Amino acid sequence: MGATVKLWSMELEPTTGQPHFSLDVLRALMTPDVKCLVVNLPHNPSGWLPSRQQWQEIIDCARRVDAWLFSDEIYSLLEQQPQQQRLAPAVCAYPQRGISLGGLSKAFGLQGLRAGWLVCRDNALLAQAECVECVKSYITTTGPIMSELLAVVALRNEQQLVGRCAGIIQDNLATAAAFFDRWPGMFQWAPPAAGSLCLPRLITASAGQHFRLGLGRTNFKEALEALEQWLLSQQ
After folding, report:
1. pLDDT of 167-183, one tens digit each?
2. Cα distance between residue 78 and residue 214, in whole Å
3. Is 86 exposed, middle or buried (0-12, 13-18, 19+ CB in 10 A)?
4. Considering the entire predicted model, what is its pTM?
């Protein structure tokens, strides 16, 4: 497409392993030639979530260079402390050039529906919506009618569906915390602030390796027990 991509890379606190993204680094990356800032918040796979003040600073970085802000918000609604942590969607927080991507696959637990949305308030971009539709056609030309109907039902029952998924994640977080507490010399982990994923670190003689761990399945406890039995068998 002719674009040059600049990576805003994740960093880790040396002692705790807590993931974060430096706003100082972002400011340095946001030069006048930047056309679009793409963020994924809550972050996949670390579960990092900026504070509301940090979110405003991210928006300001885009605004200063008149860049688009494309925000993948697929893990929104799965914050550990929703009242304190939930961020305003980009399309609302940055209405001039904000674009929000959302869907029902994560917080609602409805991956099979393949239903989601792309929202913006810019009339010029909306007038070119057929360009987005052309890209979508490479994946699927027409969404199933039943998926669309069920998506409407899901949105009308947000509290029950999101509450179910959040409850599963909360239970699995407690299970994960107990597991990692039992293996401090093997793993380092930081509980996610939001989302259904975390990024533990396997401690080795070298720098260590991270792996993506999903927290959204009902058989998470059994899977972790199987892993622990294998670890014990290797001692």
Report:
1. 999 999 999 999 999 99
2. 13
3. middle
4. 0.89
